[in-house]
Amino acid sequence: MPSSPAADSLSLTQPPLTDISLAEKSTLAVIGGGFLALLVAASDADAWRARLSLYAALTLISGGTLAWAWYKFGRKPAGVQQDNLWLRGSTSRGALAWVTAVVLTGFYVLLYWYSSPDDKGNFGLLNGLVHTLDPSSQALRQRPADQWFLYGTFYTLAILLMGGRALWKYRQSPYQLIRTGSVMFFQLAFAFLLPGLLLFFQQPEFYFTYFWPLKYDYLFPGTIDYLVKDGQALGVFMVFWGAVMSFLATPVLTYFYGKRWYCSWVCGCGGLAETAGDPYRQLSDKSRAAWRWEVRIIYPVLGLIILVTAAMWLNQVLHGALLGAAADGLYRFYGFFIGAVFSGVVGVGFYPIMGSRVWCRFGCPMAAYLGLLQKHFSRFRITTNGGQCISCGNCSNVCEMGIDVKQYAQRGEPIIRASCVGCGMCSTACPRGVLNLENGPRDGRYQSSTLIHADSLRILS
Fold first, then answer.
1. SS3 for 337?
2. Where in the numbering of this chain does the 4Fe-4S ferredoxin-type domain appear (predicted)?
3. Which of 58, 145, 191, 309 shows its CA 20 to 30 Å from the CA of 152?
């Protein structure tokens, strides 16, 4: 039976899939053994054996992942490799991708709604895993582990291990190396260790790298009252820090560097997307319809959290006389649908199906806030040189925010989009050096490189 023209075209443009070597199979088997040991740790009733299984699991998963990353990327020439992305089931919404999505989504469902502790300290279906981390939690926080310490441990480990993979994969780019190192550092030091140490010293748990409106309750009256109770200087500083970072530092830093200073260098959500979500970045929808849905959803979410914050403060000022329980109900509504369902279950669970920045692109109020500043007030842009573009499409393929970068590059137009997180992957993937991340003056920010070149020639003549 003769092959179709589409199949012939595909065979001419895509290199054939190669068999996985024995060495790579071995590293993947080690990782698989680690996940099996994790299941044993979750189900074993004996505390000592469960902890031993957990330590074995973390050792196997960590060692196997780093060994696989070195074997997969460290032995090859440096550079972005995009071969066969759309032929592998794991990276093209195939069966393996759907299985991964179901597992991730299931874990988040268990975490958010089936792991709340009872009066005996039982954490439901995750109870075995939670209590295996009791010694670590006691050492860091002076208290037993809970479901959020389990989640923070797994979250941080994912960023560190997949960050190691990214360091091997993008080692030819100093920008990517520093950026990846930055998200790994901020997650480990500021989002995991520092909050635990604050609890160790009997201080309020606080995340210095999360600000309103992403960490929406940090400017709520109840949270502020909790932080400044008894006039603690550290609590007062935390409130001051949150307010300054939200309303002063964020506009200033975004003016100079765009939203990349936060979304691609500091934020834990972005850190997970850039490391653990890197294999799925090509899955982001580049269609105009997807962009319309992005605008329809993300800005109403920003408006909603502004409304919720205003309602909470109004209720506080009026001592509940006007809104009563309605303010608390509005807060719970936002926390459930946006804080849990959207940012957690959908935002991470749908990585293998919709790409790694689903939450950042469609739901994050911080991304919406930063995006408005970036589009209308920032010096940041990605400049393009249309004369050098060969229309290979590498730039569009790696854009996790759904921007069809190639269309801008072909016309030599600067990329000034509210959604762009400045990850720089389009520039890293470009074989011709067409794309450049710049923080130039605002004059001429929207001019194409062709017009700028023409203006330069006119001035010279």
1. helix
2. 380-408, 412-440
3. 309
User: Using one digit for the tens of pLDDT, what is the confidence trace for 218-233?
Assistant: 999 999 999 998 668 9
383 sits in which H/E element = strand 381-384
- Greatest CA separation for the chain: 83
Domain-embedded: residue 396: yes
Residue 137 lies in a domain: no
Residue 299 CA, distance from chain mean position: 19
Based on the fold, state whether residues 337 and 400 are members of the same structural domain.
no
Across-strand partners of 438? 381
pLDDT at residue 153 is higher than 70:
yes
What is the rounded CA–CA span in Å between residue 145 and residue 134? 5
CB 132 within 8 A of CB 37: no
- Specify the pLDDT at position 120: 86
Q: How far apart are CA 35 and CA 342, in angstroms?
A: 26
Based on the domain organization, do 338 and 360 belong to the same domain? yes
Element (H, E) at 367: helix 365-377
Q: How far apart are the first and last CA of the chain?
A: 64
Domain that includes residue 394, residue range: 379-460
pLDDT at residue 302, as a whole number: 97
Residues 349 and 402 in one domain: no
Summarize pLDDT for 196-218 with one digit per residue, the tens.
999 999 999 999 999 999 999 99
Residues 407-421 have pLDDT tens digits of 999 999 999 999 999
